[in-house]
Write a structure and sequence with these properties.
By secondary structure, the protein is an alpha+beta fold. Helix content is about 35%, strand content about 25%. The protein has 15 helices and 25 strands. Residues about 630-638 have low confidence and may be disordered.
Length: about 650
């Protein structure tokens, strides 16, 4: 209500004061993390700091002080603006975002560095190598080729940026990369692991220039049986940097369509790769690899202000799966090679099988739809997800939803050193692979840099750096890589949430503002003491939110909760008949909008349908809107 005092003001009234020196005052700092108590700081610039996001350090908590004492470190910017809130999330997840220091830049080759064939490198510039990436991709880690051999077999090459040619072990740039350990991708900016001269230029396998690469070459039959494999440091010349969509149009191109020679060469390679990828993929899925899904969407940003003007689903082409297939093949092939040479020093990636309890909730939710999930091994889970998709075929989104929710019941994959675990624990559950590593993205992941060094040493082209033969060092590296990888993921999601808020608040015009959409129920709070509420996923925007039925009293006799069935029902007071209910996996209609208070904004999701459960205020609004729509509909019916 209006007469109530905001809790922050109550603290401020008790503690804020001017000091006798006439210069400083004590002010109250409130952390965005609710677990941290208010902090008292003494400052000369009270008026300049009000309404700003600050970084504050806690110094002490004297016995006679209600709250800890701290000091001002720096101002991040004005609360609520996109740039400030982006700085806040970088700070929150400890993402390194300082410019690279001089000693790191000193390790870079000169700006006019020429890439030329050197002794010990294999010249592969005659091969029709091409890269396939999202549009606008600047850090191209990988490129592919596939040619016919005289004996009727095919040669396939995966070419990966030769980052370790420029990043020498133990130098300042290497230590910096090891600390950062990954690039972080936010909606509106990228924070690189390596300076941009390498990231977007010398290491990036751009079209029509010579580049150094670390290449894996396979000889395969046209039916995807692998005959042999070879690893070489190479120099390549990519003939085309394609987008997924361009690659897809080559896959779909009719055979013998004529046209110029270059397109023919590209189409031949891409079609052969696509054929192999389908066979490799089928083989992996037969072995039990999982096909999971992500609800992610991408923002369309205004070219000037970079504010979100629309939200779109990712289009996944067969070309995406093609690239993924060969990256997986390269990673598995390299993992086996480095293990043979360094059975206890290899940096690998494991994915533990989920334990029963992590899946219990999802299994019982699926059961309410007559679907049983079996997780004894990944093959059984994959098959039961496929069967579930068929059983719920009346609504294709439910298949995707189950896969999204399954992903959340998994443990995260993690980097580790092969000497620390027994071989049975190396297994990658999601990929159904006994050994797996990361080799294909050394521009943006430090694990791949280490794996490049292990591989170079295994094939005898460079000695293994001393510290990569120390188990305790490898242990610390893996721990840091896991921590940084997780932080980069969380920061990326937080950036999406921030842009989601800006979009639904309709800040900058564009296509934003409040929206009405379909949503699916993920979970229902059906405990006796809880406020009646449920969680939903809105597919159109890839977001989830809690729908609170605050207008229904939790003690209302007409409210029936059924935790077994994940269901809330509402009865008619007179007849006792159920007038409306909501249960897990139901499709409902919601309104999404942003509620602003003075120091934070939150996404609010309100129920519109089933309308007997919606708040009466919203029912009136919605009725007016749908009456208009009904009129329209009648006109359009034949």
């Amino acid at each position: 209500g209006d007469g109530e005092v905001h809790p922050h003001d109550a603290v401020a009234m008790r503690h804020e004061r001017e000091h006798p020196d006439g210069l400083t005052s004590t002010v109250v700092f409130v952390s965005i993390d609710a677990r941290v108590p208010p902090i008292l700081i003494r400052t000369t610039q009270r008026d300049r700091l009000a309404g700003m996001r600050l970084l504050v350090s806690i110094d002490s908590w004297p016995a006679d002080s209600e709250y800890p004492l701290g000091h001002y470190v720096r101002t991040l910017g004005e609360t609520g603006t996109k740039d400030t809130e982006t700085k806040v999330l970088l700070q929150e997840f400890r993402i390194p975002c300082e410019p690279f220091p001089a000693k790191v830049l000193a390790c870079l080759p000169p700006a006019d560095y020429k890439i030329e064939l050197e002794p010990g490198r294999t010249d592969l510039r005659h091969l029709p190598v091409l890269s396939i990436d999202p549009p606008g991709c600047k850090d191209i880690d990988d490129a592919l080729h596939c040619i016919e051999l005289p004996n009727g077999n095919w040669q396939v090459g995966v070419h990966i940026a030769d980052v370790t040619h420029y990043v020498e072990a133990g130098t300042a740039i290497d230590l910096e990369a090891a600390d950062r350990s990954t690039s972080t991708y936010l909606v509106n900016r990228r924070l690189d692991m390596l300076p941009s001269l390498l990231t977007t230029d010398l290491c990036s396998l751009k079209g029509n220039v010579d580049r150094f690469a670390f290449t894996v070459l396979w000889e395969v039959t046209p039916d995807a049986e692998i005959v042999g494999v070879d690893f070489v440091k190479s120099i390549i010349h990519s003939i085309a940097a394609l987008t997924y969509q361009q690659a897809q149009s080559l896959i779909d191109r009719p055979d013998g369509a004529g046209g110029d020679g270059d397109v023919e060469i590209q189409a031949g390679a891409v079609k052969r790769l696509a054929r192999l990828a389908r066979l490799f993929r089928k083989r992996r899925i037969d072995a039990g690899a999982l096909t999971l899904a992500s609800p992610e969407v991408k923002f369309v940003l205004d070219s000037e202000s970079l504010n979100p003007t629309d939200v779109q689903a990712y289009t996944l082409y067969e070309a995406n799966a093609l690239v993924e297939e060969f990256m997986l093949l390269a990673n598995v092939t390299v993992a086996k090679k480095i293990l043979r040479h360094y059975p206890t020093l290899s940096i690998l990636r494991r994915h533990p099988a989920p334990n029963r309890s992590m899946f219990d909730g999802l299994i019982s939710k699926a059961r309410t739809r007559g679907v049983s999930l079996c997780i004894d091994d990944s093959k059984k889970l994959a098959d039961s997800l496929d069967a579930a998709g068929r059983a719920m075929s009346d609504d294709p989104y439910l298949d995707k939803l189950l896969r999204v929710l399954s992903t959340r019941c998994m443990s995260p994959a993690q980097y580790f050193c092969s000497g620390e675990y027994s071989a049975k624990d190396w297994h990658h559950y999601g990929l159904a692979a006994p050994v797996y590593t990361h080799f294909t993205s050394p521009i943006r992941r430090y694990a791949d840099v280490c794996v490049h060094r292990l591989l170079a040493s295994a094939i005898g082209v460079q000695p293994l750096p001393v510290f990569l033969s120390s188990k305790s060092h490898l242990h610390d590296l893996a721990a840091n890589m896991n921590r940084r990888h997780r932080a980069a993921q969380l920061a990326g999601r937080a950036s999406v949430q921030l842009h989601t808020l800006i979009f639904f608040a309709g800040d900058e015009g564009g296509g934003g503002g409040a929206k009405e959409e379909d949503a699916y129920v993920l979970d229902v709070d059906a405990d006796e003491d809880s406020e009646p509420a449920f969680t939903v996923m809105v597919p159109r925007y890839g977001i989830e939110g809690k729908v609170r039925l605050g207008h229904i009293d939790g003690k209302d006799e007409r409210l029936v909760r059924d935790p077994e069935k994940f269901k809330l029902s509402y009865k008619d007071g007179e007849t006792g008949e159920v007038v409306a209910s909501v249960k897990v996996f139901d499709k409902v209609r919601v309104r999404i909008w942003v509620r602003s208070s003075r120091d934070r904004r939150e996404l609010v999701v309100d129920l519109l349908q089933p309308e007997q459960l919606a708040s009466p205020k919203l029912r009136e609004k919605s009725a007016a809107g749908s009456a208009k729509k009904r009129k329209k509909k009648q006109k359009t019916k034949p």
